């Protein structure tokens, strides 16, 4: 199957390039989504705000043709990307907002590496350090913008050739996760970059995928692909692994002694595939699964008393993008082929529908500010 998350970070980058814009554990029981909305649903606060401006090369705010808001930290800094005019290269952007979600300062343009035009920011730490990807000639490479600075720093490569991307940075800024091409295997691998107290960034460490190898009568089928998407302050990493038969597995990597990581496979036996997309400090994992009938379903996983990850469906169809410390989950429900941004409250499954027009929510911070995309423009909205 194809990579599952329809707004998957790597799928986003592939779409940008196609448009010419770039230069051992397991899951256990499943709890079905309720057939009727639960009482005590959350309430969206206010009308919300469009993130419809970015900074041009002179630092002036300009109205955008397209923008997308992908992550928000607890200091209310939002990152994503935008195109000022139709057909222009996407540029990473940082917006600062107040407690109600209104923009407070001119947005910051997070530049690509020198001599290039494409950039996109995917995650932001509480310090303001943002990570993402920049064009580097014919390559796309993982970068960090330290403290919201306009100039990015390329992260150490796994191999000189091939692409890399930084999809997540821990809230405390000590770990960066993503993917990088490995020339020794010819595949893209899930990796972590560790950040020292002085800001030095170590070479990427490949995360283990041995439990996802398929054993067959003709010999084992190696993992085709792996990617790390988010990391918590505790160092727990979530992402996805595609096995040798093309099946996508939601994955968790838990840190052990030294630099060791233990992988966990969250894919449920009844699924066509699954992907783990975010994690909060309490270890609540959220993501998306595909049923045998081809329906995409938003889900979360939490550990039970035996240490097994238990899977709970949030809705009959849709996706989940982010989760905060209180267990509020940002995502969307799909009805009649239209996505509507929502926030669920785990484990009660109380929900707030943010918009009744085409929209998706990708992240929520501990101040209950939600970011995502509504139509062709990024949004921010408070959920009370």
From TrEMBL:
<feature type="region of interest" description="Disordered">
    <location>
        <begin position="26"/>
        <end position="52"/>
    </location>
</feature>
<protein>
    <recommendedName>
        <fullName>SbsA Ig-like domain-containing protein</fullName>
    </recommendedName>
</protein>
<keyword id="KW-0732">Signal</keyword>
<feature type="signal peptide">
    <location>
        <begin position="1"/>
        <end position="32"/>
    </location>
</feature>
């Amino acid at each position: 199957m194809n990579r599952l998350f329809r707004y998957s970070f790597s799928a986003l980058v592939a779409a940008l390039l196609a448009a010419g814009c770039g230069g051992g554990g397991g899951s256990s029981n499943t709890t079905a989504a309720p057939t009727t909305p639960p009482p005590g649903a959350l309430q969206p606060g206010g009308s919300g705000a469009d993130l419809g401006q970015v900074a041009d090369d002179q630092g002036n705010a300009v109205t955008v043709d397209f923008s997308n808001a992908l992550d928000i930290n607890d200091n209310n800094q939002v990152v994503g990307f935008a195109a000022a005019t139709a057909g222009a290269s996407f540029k990473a952007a940082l917006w600062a907002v107040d407690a109600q979600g209104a923009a407070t300062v001119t947005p910051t343009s997070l530049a690509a590496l020198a001599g290039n035009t494409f950039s996109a920011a995917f995650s932001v730490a509480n310090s303001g350090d943002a990570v993402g990807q920049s064009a580097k000639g014919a390559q796309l490479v993982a970068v960090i913008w330290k403290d919201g600075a306009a100039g990015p720093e390329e992260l150490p490569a796994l191999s000189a050739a091939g692409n890399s991307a930084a999809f997540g940075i821990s809230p405390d800024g000590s770990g960066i996760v993503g993917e990088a091409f490995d020339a020794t295997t010819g595949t893209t691998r899930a990796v972590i970059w560790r950040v020292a107290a002085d800001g030095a960034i170590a070479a990427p460490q490949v995360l283990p995928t041995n439990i996802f190898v398929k054993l067959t009568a003709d010999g084992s089928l190696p993992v085709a692909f792996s990617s790390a998407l988010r990391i918590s302050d505790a160092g727990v990493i979530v992402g996805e692994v595609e096995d040798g038969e093309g099946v996508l597995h939601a994955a968790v990597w838990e840190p052990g002694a030294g630099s060791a990581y233990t992988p966990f496979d969250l894919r449920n036996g009844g699924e066509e595939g699954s992907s783990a997309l975010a994690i909060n400090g309490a270890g609540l994992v959220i993501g998306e699964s595909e049923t045998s009938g081809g329906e995409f379903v938003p889900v979360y996983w939490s550990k039970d008393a035996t240490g097994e990850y238990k899977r709970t469906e949030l809705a009959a169809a849709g996706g989940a993008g982010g989760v905060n410390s209180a267990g509020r989950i940002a995502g969307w429900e799909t009805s009649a082929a239209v996505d509507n941004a929502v926030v669920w409250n785990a484990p009660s499954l109380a929900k707030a529908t943010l918009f009744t027009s085409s929209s998706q929510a990708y992240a929520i911070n501990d101040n209950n500010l939600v970011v995502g995309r509504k139509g062709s423009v990024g949004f921010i909205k408070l959920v009370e």
